[in-house]
Design brief:
Number of strands: 9
Oligomer: single chain
Pfam families: Acyl-CoA_dh_2, Acyl-CoA_dh_N
Structural class: alpha+beta
Keywords: Oxidoreductase
Radius of gyration: 22 Å
Order of helices and strands: HHHHHHHEEEEEEEEEHHHHH
Protein name: Acyl-CoA dehydrogenase family protein
Organism: Actinokineospora guangxiensis
Length: about 400
């Protein structure tokens, strides 16, 4: 990163101020986003920027120096950050989910303890919770749990202060979440993230070797038994809507970058029989921008509707019903598929409105498409369409799983 950041001192006090702060951060990230993507270096400075700006504390309690904001604001902040850099939009989005993990599954006492310390110390969260891998195996050693295993993806953990672990207690079907310090000998982050897009998310594999956690810190467990709630299953809709919003931010960044290029560098086409003075007067260019912007606005509106459903659930977390949770998940599935389709279309068609010279590596328009294409493979979008189809046709809601 090459741009000097503002000397932030005050914590924003309302949503508009937080969104303004996010736009400031996004503008800093955008100045060298292409160069940083090409370099693929560990984003330590970028995470420090998120800390210095206070954005990591957005969901933290106000009495501990946090923003005290809700998920609607968090999703909008994610979108703004992703406009400047899609990888960092993903990192802040995952951070918010893992910061909220205690709210989802922990006891009230555990929630209070984690959120106070994480907010005051401006922790950045990562997670080793890839469900497609075999779970980490947990064994008991007196009053401690011992985690061992490997996860092939661990987004953000290498640049995190705290890592969320999830595993299964040996000989049982008990899944146990715990928050541990990332910097310890038993957690080994491998430098093996080498994918097409989202290159700065540090999503490589991690080895967990004899990481010890007191039973008292097993999230949501009382006397070694889990206290279940419907709300505990909201982690998947929450993070799927995180995905949706950084896809939309990336798409907006692509469209904005392309528009600047078109205004400043694209030349009108001289062989169509209707020579224009500027590319911005070309009918086909105006038509394409109008089409893409309309589709993006529509996808953003659906994402906002899904966020409102999540917010309604958060307002009565202890009494949410399976039907409420399921209908929110359907809206999230609909918003995600629209964001993917729109984002990929924007990322591809921007070349049509910028011209051949815009394919130069120095312009970096390819970054946006690569980022959405890479992360949108996280889970098959066809299954999201089918979830919406079952609801539309049969009135069925998805059963909670690791992906629904």
């Amino acid at each position: 990163m090459t741009t000097t950041q503002p000397a932030w001192t005050a914590t924003p006090t309302d949503e508009q101020a937080w969104l303004g702060r996010a736009r400031e951060v996004a503008a800093i990230l955008a100045t060298d986003a292409v160069a940083r993507d090409r370099a693929g270096a560990t984003p330590r400075a970028e995470v420090q920027l998120l800390k210095d700006s206070g954005l990591v504390t957005l969901l933290g309690p106000a009495e501990h120096g946090g923003g005290g904001q809700n998920w609607t604001t968090a999703y909008r902040v994610i979108r703004e950050i992703a406009v400047g850099d899609g990888s960092i939009g993903q990192l802040i989005g995952y951070h918010y989910l893992w910061f909220w993990a205690a709210r989802l599954v922990a006891t009230p006492e555990q929630i209070a303890a984690v959120e106070e310390q994480a907010t005051r110390e401006r922790w950045f969260f990562g997670g080793a919770v890839n469900p497609r891998d075999n779970d980490l195996i947990i064994t008991e050693d007196g009053d401690e749990l011992v985690y061992n295993g490997r996860k092939s993806f661990s987004t953000g953990s290498r640049v995190s202060d705290a890592t969320v672990l999830e595993g299964v207690l040996a000989g049982t079907d008990k899944h146990i979440f715990a928050i541990v310090a990332s910097a310890q000998p038993g957690i080994v982050f491998n430098d093996d993230w080498d994918n097409l897009g989202q290159r700065l998310t540090e999503s490589g594999s991690v080895e967990i070797r004899d990481v010890r956690v007191p039973w008292a810190q097993a999230a949501g467990y009382v006397d070694r038994e889990f206290q279940p709630r419907v709300y505990s299953t909201l982690n998947v809709p929450l993070i799927q809507l995180v995905f949706t919003n950084f896809y939309l931010g990336i798409a907006r960044g692509a469209l904005s970058t392309a528009a600047t290029y078109t205004r400043e560098r694209t030349r009108p086409w001289p062989y169509g029989g209707d020579l224009k003075d500027a590319a911005t007067e070309e009918f086909y260019i105006l038509d394409a921008y109008g089409d893409l912007q309309s589709k993006l606005w529509a996808a953003e509106a659906l994402a906002e509707r899904a966020a409102a459903a999540i917010e309604a659930i958060n307002a009565h977390a202890d009494t949410v019903t399976e039907r409420e949770r399921g209908e929110a998940a359907v809206l999230v599935a609909a918003a995600k598929q629209r964001a993917i389709d729109t984002g990929l279309e924007v990322g591809s068609r921007v070349y049509e409105v910028t011209g051949a010279r815009a394919s130069a590596a120095s312009v970096g328009l390819d970054v946006h498409w690569r980022n959405i294409r890479t992360h949108s493979l996280h889970d098959p979008v066809a299954h999201k369409r089918a979830e919406v189809g079952r609801y539309a046709l049969l009135g069925q809601i998805p059963e909670p799983t690791w992906y629904t």
